[in-house]
Design brief:
This protein is α/β, with parallel strands linked by helices. The protein has helices at residues 19-23, 28-38, 75-81, 91-105, 121-132, 147-153, 172-184, 209-222, 277-288, 296-339, 366-372, 406-431, and strands at 61-64, 70-73, 113-118, 138-143, 159-166, 169-170, 192-195, 225-229, 254-259, 271-276, 345-346, 354-358, 381-382, 396-400. The protein has 2 domains: 13-312, Aspartate Aminotransferase, domain 2; 316-431, Aspartate Aminotransferase, domain 1. The protein binds pyridoxal-5'-phosphate. Pyridoxal-5'-phosphate binds at residues 120-122, 125, 146, 148, 196, 201, 229, 231, 259, 261, 266, 271. This is Kynurenine/alpha-aminoadipate aminotransferase, mitochondrial-like.
Length: 435
């Protein structure tokens, strides 16, 4: 496949790439694997370094689904599932995922985009950012931000430009103001913005459509890409389904990241990048130099599931997940209102897994959480871990409502309240000079 065929976006993508990314070349062996998958069966390949599946100890993998259906991988199908594949992904899965994305997002100029299977959202995130963020490059981030971004770009001495959020996500006027200030001071302008439009980690906000449109217009005006890392896209608790940035992307500047971690299994390690073909081609080259491709077995399992269920049953599954987590969201909000009244503040999360709790009486929650949390029998995440500048104090805490049982959740929030009260009492005592 020539990835540049049919690219109708009028964008020069080389302006966004790092020097390292521009220097990457494809490995001939990887290209041969791609060719081998697209040639007729009559062609005999002696070109690749594939092992002979007859030597593998596995003869059958059978999988039962909780809806009563099942499937078996054996013979040629099992052999394919245990073998090397092209870096872009298992070809039959790529076809199904393309159709899935087209239906779910109806992206403009669909033929100018490609999908790429990655080993989870974090893998996609790191490869996408490393194609674009080089030493000292600035990147716009929602603040607070998912720490998986910091770990990728901090070693590159990249500059994080934090943009304030409210209960509806990143605030467009703050974004514009920050860009205007940089331009006026002749500072390097950002090439990309990182965002979680639905169920932001850690705040749980969902950005309304009008705001998404405003941010997209600003991206066009200031010529930056939008990396929408959106693993909670189908896990919204709002009445209306959110519309993705991809669905608004007329100029080919959105890199959409999906993950199956939260909706099928995090252990499968499967995610999808959907973006303009030249951007996907750059990221694929990076995969060729690292893990070659996302695990084939996981890709085949996902393929079989999507074939058995089809789009509609997958959507039905997402609907069930939404009501499952919404019930948990309601419960944590209820117990937090009960136990944290007067000592902490929070907004009701509109999607995702997390309650973002602010404790106005404590300047920084880090030590309280990391040093004294366990002795109080409670583990939560300290807010500073999610700050664009992690060295700054932060009075927030992130609590997940995804996994603990209802009973545990109640006890956990009760213990958190005690931990906070003890900390507040300790601070008061220090203020009064009683060390
Ligand atoms: C916003 C965000 N991005 C990426 C990830 C990583 O997920 P994956 O398991 O798909 O790598 C997470 C996981 O918590 C997340 O919350």
């Amino acid at each position: 496949m020539n990835k540049f065929n049919g690219n109708k976006f009028k964008m020069d993508y080389s302006q966004f790439k790092t020097e390292v990314s521009k220097r990457r070349r494809s490995a001939a062996t990887r290209e041969l694997t791609k060719i081998a998958y697209s040639t007729p069966h009559s062609v005999i390949s002696l070109a690749e370094g594939m092992p002979n599946e007859e030597t593998f100890p596995f003869t059958e993998i059978s999988i039962k689904l909780n809806d009563g259906s099942d499937f078996v991988l054996e013979g040629n199908e099992l052999a394919a599932a245990l073998q090397y594949i092209p870096s872009q992904g298992f070809p039959p899965l790529l076809q199904v995922i393309r159709e899935f994305q087209r239906k779910a997002h109806a992206p403009p100029l669909w033929d100018s985009r490609e999908v790429l299977i990655v080993a989870g959202g974090q893998d996609g995130l790191s490869k996408a950012l490393e194609a674009i963020i080089g030493p000292g490059d600035p990147i716009l981030v929602q603040n607070p931000v998912y720490p998986g971004v910091n770990v990728v770009i901090t070693p590159h001495n990249a500059e994080l430009i934090p943009i304030e959020q409210d209960d509806y996500g990143v605030i467009p006027i703050c974004l514009r103001k920050r860009l205007q200030e940089r331009e006026a001071s002749s500072l390097k302008m950002p090439k990309i913005m990182y965002i979680n439009a639905t169920g932001a980690n850690p705040t749980g906000t969902v950005m309304p459509l009008e705001r998404r449109k405003q941010i997209y217009r600003i991206a066009c005006e200031y010529n930056f890409l939008i990396l929408d890392d959106d693993p909670y896209h189908f896990m919204y608790f709002t009445d209306e389904a959110p519309r993705s940035f991809l669905s608004l992307d007329t100029e080919g500047r959105v890199i959409r990241l999906d993950s199956f971690s939260k909706v099928l299994s995090s252990g499968l390690r499967i995610g999808v990048i959907t973006a303009a073909s030249p951007l996907v081609a750059s990221i694929e080259l990076h995969m060729q130099s690292s893990h070659l491709h996302a695990p084939t077995l996981s890709q085949v399992i996902l393929y079989k599931l999507l074939k058995i269920w089809g789009y509609d049953k997958m959507m039905e599954h997402f609907r069930r997940i939404r009501s499952f987590y919404k019930e948990r969201r309601d419960l944590i909000v209820k117990v937090a209102e009960e136990h944290l009244l007067g000592i902490a503040e929070f907004s009701v999360p509109s999607a995702g897994f997390f309650l973002w709790i602010k404790v106005p009486g404590i300047e920084d929650t880090w030590k309280m959480v990391m040093q004294r949390g366990v002795t109080h029998g409670i583990l939560v995440a300290p807010g500073a871990a999610f700050m664009a500048d992690t060295s700054k104090p932060c009075n927030a805490i992130r609590a997940s409502f995804a996994k603990a049982s209802y009973k545990e959740m109640n006890v956990a929030i009760e213990r958190l309240a005690l931990l906070i009260k003890d900390e507040l009492a300790k601070n008061r005592s220090i203020l009064n000079g009683n060390t």
